[in-house]
Amino acid sequence: MPRIAHISDLHIPCEGDWPWSKMLFNKRSTGAVNLLTFRSDAHPFGICEELFADLNEQDVDHVILTGDLTNLSLEEEFERAHDVLSTLGDGRILSLVPGNHDKYVRDSVRDGRFEAWFGKWLHGGSSPPDPYPYTKHVAEGVHLMGLCSAIPTPPFMSWGRIGEPQMKRMQSAADKMGAGGDFRIAALHHNLHRRGSSRKDWSTMLKDRDVFIDALFEARIDLVLHGHTHVANRMEIVRGEQKLSIVGCGSSTWQSDAHPARYNVYSISGGALDAIHCRIRRSADQGFEADASPLTIDN
Known about the structure:
alpha/beta; 7-stranded mixed sheet; 6-stranded mixed sheet; 8 helices; 24% strand; globular
């Protein structure tokens, strides 16, 4: 029975002094203020180290990371994140997609910084002109489609977009994901459910989510994994005989009493999602531990 781990929103900080010269006259200046005040202890690097130590002890076939590895898409953050991810292994064990914090400013997108640092976990290290979506065979009978929903946005905004060109490439990518009966996973950063107040939803939403959901059904995706919200959630959309399960694991490094750091492990059996096992870090003394009983999926 294949087991796929899902982690997200690590927000790995710089090591040492911040490169303040790179934060002038762009969105990073407001982001840095937020990090130094409201989010100063939100994602301690020690929790990230505990997370990867725990992952290495779990019997999983593959790990999927749904974005926000960094805070301000700084070269120094990418370097540290690269070193941490390397402790898990190469693209045979790990896949990832970018979050809005990994495409935080336009120069990071222009220079392809995320793809340069993490290409070996996306498409094997080559640099295709259109890196998204990419596809992988991640376990017996399990295929992954990795998508990019991250775009630079104005200060205090974090919306995303898949875009028409990427959605046009989705069907071609789906044709590479194995025969009927195989289990298909799509990974992106932005959530597909509506969030709280209309203002919060508007400022953080996936702008083309409705047409994207249509594209997911056309690509015969079974499970969508996302990050972005930091809070775990799950929903399903059913159309005829097709069922699309959509799961956010929450932030895997968030130091929060209400929503402590967590990640999921998905068991897949007979081409269907069988159960969701959650591992939660409730305290520094105990580290990550299994959360009660697994959530059995009614197929």
